[in-house]
Structures are given as C-alpha cells and as structure tokens.
Design goal:
By secondary structure, the chain is α/β, with parallel strands linked by helices. It has 13 helices and 16 strands. The protein folds into two domains: 165 residues, Aspartate Aminotransferase, domain 1, CATH 3.90.1150.10; 262 residues, Aspartate Aminotransferase, domain 2, CATH 3.40.640. The structure holds ligand PLZ.
Length: 446
C-alpha cells in the first residue's frame, strides 16, 4: 500500500488514538517489553510510518535496521504473498522447500571467501548467534567464546551472556552461560591513551589475555560485530579486526562476524567485514535479510558447518518458506537497485551533514559510521568526553518525534544518536529528516 512519501504532523505526538492504545497496552503487556516511542503504527511504506492518528513520520529507525529496502516494498510483499498461498509451513525437517535451498545458495555465493560454504536458517538474530557458537564448539571441540566490551548479540541465555551491558539486558537474569570471556573493543574515541594507540593496544591486550587467561587451544570462537550496533555504532580502530582475524587463523579459532545490524547493505557492503579485507569463517545475518519477516542465517565454511552430526541443528520454523521467499526478493532488490552503492554514496552525504552539525553544536563529540550506518556521540564537554545524561538524549529523540522523525539512541552510555534510514529513502526526505535532527540537537546544545 502506497503512502505519500511526506512528513505530516496532524496531532500532538502521541496523538489521542495512540494514547488510548497505550492505556490498553499498559494493562495487557508487561513494561519490560519496552517502547521507545509511545505511538502505534497503522501502516508503513517506503520511508514513512503512518500512525493511528494519521501522522506521517520519516523513519530513521527502520525497526532497528530491519527495513534496509524500506517498508512494505511491493516486490517483497508480492513474493511473501505468493509463497503464503503456495505453502506456509511444513517444517524444513519434515519436507524441504525451494526458497530455503535457493536462499542458502544465494548467501553462500554472497558471503566473503572463495570456498565451499553452507547456510542454515533460524528465526531471530539471537538464535543465529546461538547456532554459530554451537557449530564452532562442535567443530573445534573447544568450549570458550571470546566477546567484547559494548557488544550486543541478543537476549537468549547464551546471546545475553555474550552481550556486554547489564542494564537493561541482563540485570537480575543470571546466572549467565559459562566459558564466555570479554575483551576490550578498539573504541578509538574513548581509548584512554588516545585513538592513535587504540588498535595496537587493544590487540596486545587481546593477545595476552587469550594466551594467559583463556589459552588459545581452549577457544572455539571469537564473535564480533564489525561495526558495533547497540553499543553505539562503534567503528573499530583500523587494524584491530585484521589483527584479531590473524590471531584466529594462527590458533584455529573460528572468527564469527555478527552482521545482524551491519549487514545487507547497511554499512555499504553486503557484509561490513568486507571493508576490513577479512574473510570470516562464519557470518550471521538477520534483521534486513527478511525485511521484517523473521529469518536469520548462519553462513560458514563447509567443513565447519558439516562438522555437526545429522539432526544437530534446526527448529520448527527455521527458514520458513514465506520468510525465505521474502528474503530472496530482498536480495534481488538490493542488487537490482544497486543499493550497496547507494548506501555508500548517501552515507557520505549523511556524514558530511553530521560533521557540519558537529562544527555548530558543541554537544557532538564524535561523528562516525560507514555507509548508512552513522551516528553522533553526544558529550557535555569535548575535553572530558563526559556523556550527556539519559534524559537529555531522550529529549532529543522526543523532539524529533514531535516534529515527525523517528530516531533511536544507542550506546553503552546511552548517549549516541544513530541514524538508520532505509537505503531507498528519497534524498529530499533524507535531508528534511536530517534538518529536524540538526534542530533538535541544536536546541539542546544551546
Ligand atoms: N546481534 C549485532 O544488533 C539485535 C536489539 C533490540 P534479535 N539488535 C536489536 C533489543 O533491544 O532487543 C541484534 C544485533 C546484533 C544480534 C542481535 C539480536 O537479534 O533478532 O533481536 O534476536
């Protein structure tokens, strides 16, 4: 369904109908299942969300990096509808389906590395993380998994244990899964001895820690987001990931690239790790792969994936035919519309705008990102880099919302404003949304 691609604020936001629904929500849904924005969607298309009060909002959140190809793209909707009528579900373990196999072939061809690969499907990002670790453990016969500060890998027990931040993700929900070791991430902006030393020192620390405290021969996998998402859109200092990948290769450790947020064109490539020149052993995808249909994938070297015995992996819904058919249409659309190139080009434009904002707004301490995965980190003082407090950031987000732009925060310190517009967004609409963000940060800076 087409919605005019324009911002239109008709009511105070949230409007009366959203408020009414939120009253009902309070009595029906637990508070733990949080809402960033107190509004209810009626429909969405392209880069616009229309709420139940008729407001049209520019979407810079895209369901947390799920709608890289925009909301309800006709090709994806048509593919899902067609499959829905043909075969909604038989369970791949009972009788297989064509979209599953075809999508696996496509991902095997797209993932970095000129070697034989295999792909299995699950439903959520967290499940893909869990499966990748299971495969790495089974293939290596080793127990330990290395993860990083600021990492986010999901909310199931193992994924939550790999995730860094205690509030809100882990508080009171332990004990956590064992054999997980956390190392510093090469976060250049906050590296104590300065960004120029970051990669080298973070690597030296990792090397020492992996040798002295874990033992390389005990490590099944290193799992890393090539650009950290929830942690604050942190682009690792150049050389850090390459050094890590070398360490993994040297010691037979499986290198897992979590591309759940950064992949499918978001950071300007199919997989953000490509920009590092690294060939991961396993890549995991979800989110924009299915454009809102729940599907996630683990794609890896054939010898790792085939190390698991028959029946060792699976689930009722994994690679559901409707979701897989939608994903095939997503991949086709990214290719046909050259959205990787567009992500890189518009990403440059967004970064230039953010740098211009930084020159005018003292609140912006850092501007970073790649492709259309960009963010600003907000601080009270550029010298001390003291993060702005939560309510100040929330104020910016709310100001944007009241002007008809949906944005999200991120970051361990909750002080990062991230921008996740569809890769397909009209350039005029993109600029208009950025104007709103500019004004909201400006009004808070002064
Ligand atoms: N790995 C890199 O970004 C999900 C989380 C939203 P699921 N990020 C959004 C929230 O508050 O729970 C994510 C991610 C990376 C794994 C995941 C987990 O993906 O599909 O949410 O399980």
């Amino acid at each position: 369904m087409d919605i005019p691609q324009e911002r239109k604020v008709l009511t105070e936001i949230p409007g009366p109908k959203s408020r009414e629904w939120f009253e009902r929500r309070k009595a029906a849904v637990p508070q733990a299942v949080f809402n960033v924005h107190p509004i209810v969607t009626a429909r969405a298309s392209g880069s616009i969300i229309e709420d139940v009060d008729g407001n049209r909002l520019i979407d810079f959140a895209t369901g947390i990096s799920v709608l890289n190809v925009g909301h309800t793209p006709p090709e994806v909707v048509a593919a899902a509808q067609k499959q829905l009528e043909l075969d909604t579900h038989t369970c791949f373990h009972v009788t297989a389906n064509e979209p599953y196999i075809e999508l696996a072939e496509r991902l095997n061809a797209l993932a970095p590395g000129e070697f034989d690969k295999r792909t299995m499907f699950a439903n959520s990002g967290a499940e893909a993380v869990e499966n990748a670790v299971k495969i790495a453990r089974k293939a290596t016969g080793r127990p330990a998994v290395v993860t990083f500060d600021h990492a986010f890998h999901g909310r199931t027990l193992l994924a939550m244990s790999l995730t860094a931040k205690v509030m809100p993700y882990k508080q009171g929900m332990g004990p956590f899964a064992p054999e997980i070791y956390r190392l510093p991430f090469a976060y250049a902006y906050r590296w104590p001895s300065g960004p120029e030393h970051c990669a080298e020192e973070a690597l030296a620390y990792a090397r020492d820690e992996m040798h002295k405290q874990i033992g390389e021969e005990n490590i099944a996998a290193v799992i890393v987001e090539p650009i950290q998402g929830e942690g604050g859109f942190i682009v690792p200092a150049p050389g850090f990931l390459t050094g890590l990948a070398d360490l993994c290769r040297e010691h037979g450790i499986v290198f897992i690239s979590d591309e759940i947020q950064s992949g499918m064109g978001r950071a300007g490539r199919w997989f953000a790790i490509e920009d590092e020149g690294i060939v991961p052993d396993i890549v995991i995808t979800a989110k924009s792969l299915g454009s809102g249909m729940p599907i996630s994938a683990v794609t890896g070297r054939a010898e790792l994936m085939e190390a698991v015995h028959v029946g060792g992996l699976g689930g009722t819904y994994g690679g559901n035919p409707v979701a897989a058919a939608a994903a095939l249409a997503v991949l086709e659309k990214i290719e046909r519309e050259e959205l990787l190139e567009r992500s890189r080009r518009l990403g440059e434009r967004i970064l230039a705008r953010l740098r211009d904002m930084q020159s005018r707004h003292p609140l912006i301490g850092d501007v970073r990102g790649r492709g259309m995965m960009t963010a600003v980190e907000l601080v009270t003082d550029r010298e001390t880099k003291e993060p702005i407090d939560g309510p100040t950031g929330t104020g910016i987000v709310q100001r944007c919302l009241s002007e008809g732009v949906v944005i999200l925060k991120a970051g361990t310190y909750d002080n990062v404003i991230r921008l996740l517009p569809p890769l397909t967004i009209d350039e005029g609409l993109l600029d208009e949304g950025l104007d709103v963000v500019d004004q909201a940060i400006g009004a808070t800076s002064s």
